[in-house]
Specification:
- One of its GO terms (molecular function) is chondroitin 4-sulfotransferase activity.
- It comes from Strongyloides papillosus (Intestinal threadworm).
- This protein has helices spanning about 1-25, 65-75, 75-80, 95, 105-115, 120-125, 135-150, 155-160, 165-175, 180-185, 190-195, 205, 220-235, 240-250, 260-270, 275-285, 285-290, and strands spanning about 45-50, 55, 105, 125-130, 210-215.
- The chain is of the alpha/beta class.
- It starts with a helix and ends in an 8-residue tail after the last helix.
- The protein has a five-stranded mixed beta sheet.
- Helix 1 (about 1-25) packs parallel to helix 15, helix 7 packs across helix 15 (about 260-270) and helix 9 (about 165-175) runs parallel beside helix 16 (about 275-285).
Amino acid sequence: MKYLILLFLTFTLLSVIELHIIINSTSTDKYKGVIYNKKVVKESYFVAPRYKLATCAVHKSFSAMLTSILCYLNMEKVFFKRYNHLAGFNFNHKTCVTKKNSHLNSFSELIKIHSKGDEVNFLKTWKVIMVVRNPIERFISGFVHLCYTNKVRNYKEFCLGCGKDFKCFVNKLHSILTSGYKSAIHAYFQTKAHFYPQNMQCNYLKNKNKFIVLKFDPKNLESFYRSLEEILIQQKVPREKVEFIDKEIRTYRIKHSTTGKSKTMEFIKKFYKEKDVIRKLIEIYYGDFKEFDFQIPNI
């Protein structure tokens, strides 16, 4: 019964989001967007060297689960001493997150350490995954998880001093990002990682041609799962491990996932009544809508 209720809530949530983002959406160029040609957000790469796999973590875009997968592939015995399932992972797992040469802060560092500086060979043999999702969905997931439902560490800084007030938060985020490069880079690092546009993550504008970009779409998870499975197979991950990963990501969710939860539904009802807020979010994330081919809400 609990599973059926969760399925119903998930379906309802996705239907509401689809109503606002997909059905009533058209492409438009009336928004200017926010783009900086310099690095704004610190890069964060996790690797499984045996299989020449890496990911650049884009928070609220399947980042915890994908990092968990690489941690499992990189140190299976250590992983299972702590977790029974991939969904049990969190970024507080220091052994996985801080292991030497497994968590790196730039693409050039990836190449230097794992290909002896040979970029051509690295790009030929490695696959570096970047997962993105619809910017509005990502914002909702981040705000519900970090500001609306929980009081995380450094809550005031994380949520820009706005608490649960998403109108206050969006206004401040918009002001920060449209007030110049210095304003953008000096924001709290976790706010940047979770709420800045995805095209500002991973030094994307510089590294975009080096990534395999996968689109995480809760309305079309089958396509996402298949694409991820194909990459694992291409990198010669053993079949039994691929099957384990596939079963885990289809069956379990990371604890802080917000999809289908009652607080998310509650938030969405309030959120979509605020057209001015949505307009500002479209301007903030305009580059993501265009770069990753997501439909822009027509409001």
